[in-house]
Hints:
Radius of gyration: 34 Å
Oligomer: single chain
Structural class: mainly alpha
Strand content: under 5%
Shape: rod-shaped
Low-confidence stretches: 37-43
Largest sheet: none
Number of helices: 6
Number of strands: 0
Mean pLDDT: 75
Amino acid sequence: MSYTIFLILIVIVALALILIIMVQNPKGGGLSSSFGGQGTQTLGGVQNTTNFLDKATWTLAITLCALILLSNVTMDHGKVDTNSQVEQTLNERENFQSAPAATDPTTTTTQDSAQ
């Protein structure tokens, strides 16, 4: 159950990270330049918008990594088999070859006594 919650959170954070990265412009424009002139003053200026997007990107990236690591802890790994398939096959062959042929001692003695 908790693994499913982590999975949903990972998807949400990944989508938010994609959106934040897409809003940014590699040359310093992006969201801050799309408002133009007076609009940037209401957002706190170009520099503040760039700082916010930069901090949001790093925060979401660190959150995504943490969620991925924590989801690994909550994942149900099931029973771990330490022997490989090759080792199991070799052990089965050794057990088959080392097992003596099944003989019924009563049938052998009755045949000997009949002669």
